[in-house]
Amino acid sequence: MNDGRMMEKLHNIQTTYGYIPENEIEKLADEYAMSKTKVYGVISFYSMFHTEPTGKYLIRICNSLSCHLNRSDDVVTGVQEYLGVESGETTEDKKYTLEIVECLGHCGEGPVMMVNDKIYTHVSKAAALKILKECM
Amino acid sequence: MGETLFLKRKVSEDYSHYDFPILKKVIKMRREDVIAEIKASGLKGRGGAGFPTGLKWELALKEPGDEKYIICNADEGEPGTFKDRFLLENTPLQVMEGIIIAGYAIGANKGYIYIRGEYAKAINIFQDAINHAKEEKLIGDSILDSDFSFDLQLVKGGGAYVCGDETSLINSIEGNRGISRITPPYPIQNGLYGKPSVVNNVETLTAAAEILAQGGKTYANLGTDKSKGTKLVCLSGDVKEPGVYEVEFGAMTLREIIDEFGKGTTGELKFVIPGGVSTAILTDDQLDIPYTYEDIANVGSGLGSGAVVVVSEGHDLLELLQNVSRFFMDETCGTCFPCREGNRRVYHLLKEAVNKGGFTSDDMKLIKDIGKTIYLAARCGLGQTSMCFIGSVLEKYTDELLARR
Ligand SMILES: Cc1cc2nc3c(=O)[nH]c(=O)nc-3n(C[C@H](O)[C@H](O)[C@H](O)COP(=O)(O)O)c2cc1C
Ligand code: SF4
Ligand code: FES
Predict the structure, then answer these.
(1) What is the CATH number of the domain that holds B284?
(2) Are residues B148 and B253 in the same domain?
(3) Same domain, residue pair A121 and A65
């Protein structure tokens, strides 16, 4: 279907459920006359899409070069220790999912962290932990 | 020398009543004349490849068929680059005006803007701007009482750097995995849904609109023979005042950009990456060159997307190498075996070197060999440039890297 809306639909499903569940993949496959495998292949290509539930708060920390120069490593290790999870993992209470990611496009204001859609710049380790504690 | 405000001229203006004055003028011009103006300006694509914009539009206009597409590439993802976000957040309507003008020039009635998914704020701002333009009938059927109709759709990326490549981006809009296509045919002949398509960068389209406001000659009078006009430079890393600065080509040296705009480095300067992590580094003795495509190419690097990353002493070189290597390992789309496995292998060699405290000359040779293989086998720019930074650091700091053991 030449409507250019597959990405939008995937984003919308994810916003609704927090991830892309199997039955929605089936619906998309029907709608676009694609096999389920193919839809799954599309989803798995993009790092922003999840096929498993994530935590209530998706924490992304940039660790690309400009942020690295601004000591993003400190933030990364600080947050990893505080949450007790590695990149790609969710805390046991399902509150946080941590992702160490590549450039978020705020390279002049690093280190940079995102909580769901909100961006935080010039983040120190202490600031990052404060932000996490304020997630209710 | 301060900033040359061409693109940034309207940044502080209130946009709520902006009604596309440039488009109003352009829509009364012949398509060929619009293109001639862009050609006269000498504008080159600002997405990294530097293809002449006027020529791209001309080729697309000449393609047969009534179904064509204009696609604005806002997938900005190369570490160090944030100028397109700056434009999307601060001058969304001017970006949009550029897209519609390009659509008009090439005869496309449908446009897409592909914004990387992580740019939540820019996406909201731009979607609001599209809604506003639709309400004001600046987008839609017969816009501004002309016989030109234009629809614009925003597509949110899914977090894949490789989708910035124009053929991958087209695959992604079509709802496929964002892997590159074999070229030729180029998107100009066979792009979105197999139709003639022009893909242009955000900065390119914004500049095009402003060129049509001020005239191609005005723009061509700025810059040098081979690099016309101005460029948004994204300054980051070890500088005191990072940010997006607009520089007239040739008017300042790289060092002046760092010292005057960046207010100098935070430590003793070690090297500079002049065009993002897919370009080769320049050492301190290479910085007194004018900021132009040709001068940076002459010293063996590239201006890329305009990301100037400053690195001072005090960082572990091996860690920096590993950091950049991880980026390419994470972001390769995996279609070409040497790009997929080569970048992974290089990452692991670097990681091993960190663990054992340094390099042997064999390690270095191996990394260089892999780099060459990736370059030769890569289908798209990601693979071709993935080893530029690493290769140049190995070459320029061989002794330092070997001496660690
Ligand atoms: C891996 C890769 C990533 C790219 N990323 C971008 C990008 O984020 N934005 C962009 O405009 N061009 C990017 N490009 C270049 C595009 O393929 C294309 O040349 C450009 O969008 C054309 O627009 P221009 O002529 O206005 O520069 C990328 C190319 C490659 C190979
Ligand atoms: S060069 Fe790398 S990123 Fe480009 S198409 Fe090949 S595998 Fe994909
Ligand atoms: S390098 Fe971290 S935001 Fe760009």
Answers:
(1) 3.10.20.600
(2) no
(3) yes
Residue B116 to residue B75: CA distance in whole angstroms: 4
Does B175 sit within 8 Å of A7, measured CB to CB?
Answer: yes
What is the pLDDT confidence band of residue B405, given thresholds at 50, 70 and 90?
low
Contacts with B234 from chain A: Cβ below 8 Å: 107-108
The conformation of residue B186, written as its DSSP 8-state character, comes to P
Residue B31's pLDDT is 98
Residues with CB under 6 A from ligand 1: B 45-49, 51, 73, 75-77, 162, 164-166, 199-201, 204, 380-382
Which residues of chain B make contact with A104, given a CB cutoff of 8 A?
A: 118
Number of domains in chain B: 3
CATH code of the domain containing B393: 1.20.1440.230
CA contacts within 13 A on the Cβ side of B367 = 28
| Domain identity same for B261 and B240 | yes
**Closest among B280, B285, B253, B257 to B269, alpha carbons compared:** B285
Residue A30: domain span: 3-45
| Distances from the Cα of B281 to the Cα of A122, B285, B320, B351, B392, angstroms | 26, 12, 12, 21, 6
How do residues B210-249 score in pLDDT, each as one tens digit? Answer: 999 999 999 999 999 999 999 999 999 999 999 999 999 9
Could you tell me if A62 and A111 are in contact, meaning their C-beta atoms sit under 8 angstroms apart? yes
Summarize pLDDT for B340-383 with one digit per residue, the tens. 999 999 999 999 998 888 888 999 999 999 999 999 999 999 99
By C-alpha distance, the chain B residue nearest A109 is B242
- Report whether residue A131 contacts ligand 3, using a CB cutoff of 6 Å: no
CATH of residue A73's domain is: 3.40.30.10
Same domain? For B187 and B235 the reply is: no
Based on the domain organization, do A40 and A7 belong to the same domain? yes
ipTM for the assembly: 0.96
Q: Are residues A26 and A80 in the same domain?
A: no
Please check whether residue B207 is in contact with residue B43, taking contact to mean a CB–CB distance below 8 angstroms.
yes
Whether residue A106 and residue B82 make contact (CB cut-off 8 A), yes or no, is yes
Domain presence at residue B158: yes
Query: How far is the C-alpha of A130 from the C-alpha of A124, rounded, in Å?
Result: 10
Segments forming the whole domain that contains residue B387:
317-402
pLDDT digits (tens, 9 = 90+) for B96-149: 999 999 999 999 999 999 999 999 999 999 999 999 999 989 999 999 999 999
- pTM given for the model: 0.96
